[in-house]
Give the backbone structure.
Amino acid sequence: MLFSRLRLSLLAAIFMALPVHAFANWSVTNLSLLYGDGFKLDDNAQYTITLDHARSWKYGDFFFFIESFNPATGDSNEYGEIHPRFSLSKVTGKDFSNNYIHDMYIATEVELGENHRAYLYGLGFDLKLKGFNYFNVNVYARDNIRQGGKTWQITPYWQLPFSIGSSKWSFEGFADIAGTEDNAKHNIIFQPQLLLDVGDLFGHPGQIKAGVEYSYWSNKFGVKDIDQKVMQVMMKWSF
């Protein structure tokens, strides 16, 4: 079912945590459709619908996404994350920028899946890198409640726009680099995207993008030597 209980609980948590009057500055919502095959420990071929939203607010920024895998099969699987961050500059009134960073954050994350729940907390850094719309890094302590103990995770994410002739492109994505946690081995998720701004070709820049996403996951789900390498075609609509 497309609007599963997971989706509803994620949306409710976001709006309870951040009242409407606290929203400010900027926001973006994306709806993406991806297809690829060669997945491990899942259906070999999958199409994925992803809804994500990012915006700033009075005391920082937040991001969430919800994914549904093969939703039309009647046996779909959903997964979502919420990422609230609290700007140290906005909270304290002090300027934390320097030659290398725009700001520092208290970074938090909640991961929710059918048989998965994890809580992460740490520090975030918005870096100053020439040419990038953004290049941010969060450094977390990670607690998967279905595993014993805790571990660490480093998550960089970025967007680099560039042009080829008159066409506009972007190289964007993220990586999750996590340590060993009880029975789960250290693992790396790396998902870069190469996207053409199709909307710009028709006078509507930034609204429709198309391209590919490469999904690399070493020790998938923390399972030793299960390495996933999948190329997916991708369409993204921005609102």
